[in-house]
Amino acid sequence: MEIKILGPGCPKCKQTEEIVRQAVAEEGVAANIEKVTDIMKIAGYGVFGTPAVIVDGEVKSVGKIPKKEDIKAWIKK
């Protein structure tokens, strides 16, 4: 599973990364978590609000800190 956290490194982006990592650990799934901070790469995903979360190529959240329960639902297979 590939999870990308898009954002320039703002406090909300860091909090989103922490919540994503907690959800992945609690669910026990194998995931490659990548932090994308380059604005041009972020825009390449069609995302213009941060933080954003992409799971396996699908944009799941934009412009807000997602709830841990939502992240867990996204990563369950």
Task: Give an account of the 3D structure.
It is a single chain. By secondary structure, this protein is α+β, with helices and mostly antiparallel strands. The protein has one domain: Glutaredoxin (3-Layer(aba) Sandwich). Helices cover 40% and strands 25% of the residues. It has three helices and four strands; from the N terminus they run βαβαββα. A four-stranded mixed β-sheet has the order 2-1-3-4. A hairpin with a 2-residue loop joins strand 3 (52-55) and strand 4 (58-62). The termini are close together.
What CATH architecture do you see? 3-Layer(aba) Sandwich
Task: Indicate the proportion of strand residues.
Answer: 15-25%
What is the succession of H and E elements? EHEHEEH
Termini Cα gap? 10 Å
Mean of all residue-level pLDDT scores = 95
The top level CATH class name: Alpha Beta
Radius of gyration over all CA atoms, rounded = 11 Å
Give me the secondary-structure category: alpha+beta
Helical content class: 40-55%
Name of the CATH superfamily: Glutaredoxin
Do you know the CATH topology? Glutaredoxin
When the domains are counted, the total is 1
